Amino acid sequence: MSLDATYAGLNEIFRDLFGDEAISLTPDTTAADIAEWDSFNHINVVVAVESLFGIKFNTVEVEGLKNVGDMAALIERKQEATRR
Asked: What pTM, to 2 d.p., does this model score?
């Protein structure tokens, strides 16, 4: 999957979860940029990402995510590992 496709999937997830079609994620987007992105919704984001992309994150990986760019890069690494 291309990075563009990853971001398209992430935008779909965020728009659905937060009910805001105007969300347009960038690599620098953080929870501070989306009003309702709290700890509960963070779990919802992680579960939705795992489901859409067919991957699983461990706790250390999730705790290490600082922004959407980190998440997209991790998704790409995980998908690459599953293709091998």
From this structure: 0.92
